[in-house]
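Handout, page 2. Input:
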Amino acid sequence: MAAVIPTIDLRIWTEGDAMRRAVLARTVDQALQSAGFLLVTGHGVDPALRAGIRSAAREFFLLPAGVKQRYAAKVGGRGWLGPGAEANGYAEGTETPPDLKESLTFATAEPFEDPRVNAEWYAPNVWPAEVPALRGLCEEYLGRMVALEKELLALLACALGLGADFFTRHMDHPTYGFNINW
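Output:
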């Protein structure tokens, strides 16, 4: 028999009373102990935002290689990674040919006081001038992900019987980003 992937509605956490929030926290704990992961609905991220990002990114990826090259980045950096820049099979220790995909990489911008840390973790995002809509869409998406992250971390802390700020109090300077792959 196949395992059921638990689904939670985050609106219970963001809009519910204390009793419903406690029940949801127990549900999350059980889901993570049994399946190891879960699906989240009710997170409030508009599907139109994701569609807008995909559309704008498609415009970028259809540009000539010479134009995209102006936004080239190193692996782990922010900007464009062309075909062959990565070989993700190496992450598993498997020798493979380079990937055929292209990627656009963006990340958060909550820098520290230390310029050395900022140079490593908070390099500026590279926004393609040819697709001006991409910046606003991606910045809105990153903002939505920061808010979602805080809600999920608070819920996870409560699921573990900890204070709601147990994880979130350490998240003033997140270093995550996202790739848009083609």
